[in-house]
Automatic annotation (TrEMBL):
<dbReference type="Pfam" id="PF00583">
    <property type="entry name" value="Acetyltransf_1"/>
</dbReference>
<feature type="domain" description="N-acetyltransferase">
    <location>
        <begin position="30"/>
        <end position="191"/>
    </location>
</feature>
<dbReference type="GO" id="GO:0007623">
    <property type="term" value="P:circadian rhythm"/>
</dbReference>
<dbReference type="InterPro" id="IPR000182">
    <property type="entry name" value="GNAT_dom"/>
</dbReference>
<dbReference type="GO" id="GO:0030187">
    <property type="term" value="P:melatonin biosynthetic process"/>
</dbReference>
<keyword id="KW-0963">Cytoplasm</keyword>
<dbReference type="InterPro" id="IPR016181">
    <property type="entry name" value="Acyl_CoA_acyltransferase"/>
</dbReference>
<keyword id="KW-0012">Acyltransferase</keyword>
<keyword id="KW-0808">Transferase</keyword>
<comment type="similarity">
    <text>Belongs to the acetyltransferase family. AANAT subfamily.</text>
</comment>
<keyword id="KW-0597">Phosphoprotein</keyword>
<keyword id="KW-0090">Biological rhythms</keyword>
<dbReference type="InterPro" id="IPR051635">
    <property type="entry name" value="SNAT-like"/>
</dbReference>
<keyword id="KW-0471">Melatonin biosynthesis</keyword>
<dbReference type="GO" id="GO:0004059">
    <property type="term" value="F:aralkylamine N-acetyltransferase activity"/>
</dbReference>
<protein>
    <recommendedName>
        <fullName>Serotonin N-acetyltransferase</fullName>
        <ecNumber>2.3.1.87</ecNumber>
    </recommendedName>
</protein>
<comment type="pathway">
    <text>Aromatic compound metabolism; melatonin biosynthesis; melatonin from serotonin: step 1/2.</text>
</comment>
Amino acid sequence: MSVVSAVPFMKPVHMRSPVPRGRRHTLPASEFRSLSPEDAISVFEIEREAFISVSGECPLHLDEVRHFLTLCPELSLGWFEEGRLVAFIIGSLWDQERLTMDALTLHKPHGTTVHIHVLAVHRTFRQQGKGSILMWRYLQYLRCLPYVRRTVLMCEDFLVPFYQKSGFKVQGPSDIAVGPLTFIEMFYPVRGHAFMRRNSGW
């Protein structure tokens, strides 16, 4: 099921820069949209460069990227600059309170928790705040999905402050380890925020 066509927030958003006279652009300067299996190679190239140099492991291998972009493309978000992918998020649905090893490869269609597998930014666009902006847009979009109650992710210790700035809270050490790597599990109460706003007179 694709939610994209039914949710105005996910329609491609274009932010055009001034165009010099005499020059024509055929692509929007900036666009946000859900990813498709056709984007898998671009996604994996950015992910591999971002993670292999830091941790030696990719959160998703190429076949897993294609797997999730086929099963639940509506839970992904890509940021394109003049047609080039510069940052992305890939998520899937999960149906338990905590993440297990199965959460790394499974999509649970009846789940109410979005598991964010990976957020990555192309190396030439880092240190520009794009990761934070993309996460903000993604969380805003999730609020439009009535079946989503919360979102969870796991990250290494040094990334905890980054996600805390986006509103995530630490749930505790993750039960998942990949080789020598250990992780912290974090969560964001998507539906809880909307409920509090409705009942607080904001």
